[in-house]
Amino acid sequence: MQPKFRTAIAVAGAGPVGMSLAIDAALRGVEVVLIEARAAGEPPSAKCNTVAARTMEIFRRLGVSEAVRAAGLPDDYPTDTIYCTAVAGHELTRIRMPSRAERPQPGFHDSHWPTPESMVRVSQLYLEPILYERVKSLPNITVLNRTSVLGYDQDADGVTVHCRAEDGEAFDVRADYLAGCDGGRSTIRKAMGVSLAGDAEISRTRSSLIRAPGLKALFGERRPAWMSWVQNPKRSGTVVAIDGKEVWLVHRGVGAAESFDDVPFDQSIRDVLGVDESFSWEVLNHEDWIGRRMVAERFGDGRVFIAGDAAHLWVPFAGYGMNAGVADAVHLSWLLCGVIKGWADPAILDAYQAERQPITEQVSHFAMRKVMENVEAMRAGGAIPPALAADTPEGEAIRQFLGQRLFEINVPQMSPEGLNFGYFYEGSPIITYDGEAPPSYDMGAFTPSTAPGCRLPHFRLADGTSILDRLGPDYTLLSSGGDGGPLVQAAKAGGLPLAVVTAPRPDAPADRPALMIVRADTHIVWRGDHPPADADVLVARLKGADRQSAHACAS
User: Fold this and answer.
1) pLDDT at 397
2) Whole domain around residue 303: which residue ranges?
3) What pTM does this model have?
């Protein structure tokens, strides 16, 4: 069969991960075919409701951050998280976070974050249409909706992707590379023969998207919350404000001894909300799902790669699953485009697995620990205390004790500065290490560092411009006074794309190197006060062509 379409990159799956990969590649001038089983504009799941600050930095580069920031909740709706016995019940504690209108004000948990882009609490229901409009605006992306990927064959020259349209037509897409961004049940991962390893079941949840105009009134005189974590002797759950008016997502936990059907549909919603049978709602969508901590044993096979939920699944604590997937997507896009455009050696693709798999493994364990900490706090005696929701001195004492503990546990989850900015890449084939160990980090905190593999510490130039807005699309040489001429010459001779930014910082620490090379994803790949004597070896390494020790090019 002759291929119906030919392209540089075929992407299976047009969720946020697949669309981010397609947009990034298209902006680099590469042709993409995006294959999606859903119809154009078909609503996605509402499970993902946070766009992390690092993802917003990516979206800033892709040209959609302003639209994402403006979507979803009204300007005056807070993004607080509360812990309570029911939405209409007793409040145990509150993690106060800003509304869009309050965002310029200091004093919130993330007000000091080192970025021009704050995290945004917005549902995937609103995010996907924004990304899709950006996809449609780029002429080098072809979208095949209502089309399923059945499998693929690959050879030394490319990948043949076997597809079937909704009307039954079978056809092939021929691509240089294939990216499987097709979710937890990934056809691409299964065709690769790759397994997920980890914890196959951590929790089970019933999730209902409802329209309930009366729900906001349940907060009474209190400041409304974006997310309400509910614990009471009848039912645990979570309620998320989707539009801040009448659409809400209601999760209900399924007990260890229960099946999904053992959880009474309507009554479990009432128990989480704290209402009686007179309270009404309309169910817009429903899904039963299992929380897992699973990571694929490998992320690539020849010319085929996986990203997002196809590569890793974990309980959605810290809301980082989709965000990690978007980071996968643009990382993979950059590497693939480098090879397709000819400046990178095909061996550079080894960096995808070497860098992204260890990070997703780390994050999955961070998320798992938060699950266990919350369970232990609420069930220290083996079960939620019956007096927790009672209007008694005993109930009040329990709520005060648990509220303080839940606040301490969950501020790092709801304001995950370390998770956003602290992670670093070790053992990468395209980073030159110099012996300084990157500082450790946890979910809530990190220490900025210029050690190779770390994220570039954020700063603004003298004119107020974020350094992120000055980085080139591939590599950037940042000079705060050093002579970068030999590096620029070596890059030109070796065909390495290298932008140059002179960026003196009046507040720069004394140990900041005079020269740094930074990637578009803001990770530092080399630093020094002087160019290395073997600058051509460094250039070869950054192109993926040098297979020597990672320490070969230290200055």
Assistant:
1) 94
2) 5-71+122-197+293-365
3) 0.95
